[in-house]
Amino acid sequence: MRFICNKYFLPVFVVIQFITVLGCSNLCHAQNQIQQFDDRIMLDLQANRTPAQTDVMLFLSRTYKYGDVGVPAALLVGGIITNDSKMRQNSLYIASSTAISYGVMLLLKHLVKRPRPFVQNINIVPVYRASSTSFPSGHAASTFSTAMALSNAYPKWYVIAPSFLWAGSVSYSRSYLGVHYPTDVTAGASLGVGTALLLQGIKH
């Protein structure tokens, strides 16, 4: 465990600093081109919502907990039942990646404090009013971390394709629902993927 901490602390710290700088830049220059791009996308998504699509997006948004917890839990149970040490180790890898991504995401939210889209721009009307701050997206960070770690552990097309389709759909739903800017989602996805790659030495 000491080896893992020493090996990955510096890269993770560098990633945190890099994303923090980007997030602060967006926050401090709310009227710059990135902010304008974000607003345009959010308003366009809002204008094209339909009741049926909204129901699907709400469902997808809620699935993140089941995937983030269910995937490593299923691998752990399977590894115990079949006495498969590789499966148990990969369960630890995926769970660690997702947990660290989530923790770093919370830290960044606290540091950056970017307002939610509907707070920043009164013309943006969300499907529901999420609490806390906006940058980065926690759903994107955790789902992409789970997807990347699972794909690293089992690099088969039938694992990779559905994993990233799920993570991408959940992440897209956050902007569709009006609770995250596209840049929030992009930063969250980058954080999740980056964490999974940095920790891949844990996998079997």
Automatic annotation (TrEMBL):
This is Phosphatase PAP2 family protein. Gene3D superfamilies: Phosphatidic acid phosphatase type 2/haloperoxidase. It is a multi-pass membrane protein. InterPro entries: PAP2/HPO, PAP2/HPO_sf. It is found in: Cell membrane. Its main location: membrane. Residues 91-200 form the Phosphatidic acid phosphatase type 2/haloperoxidase domain. It comes from the Bacteria.
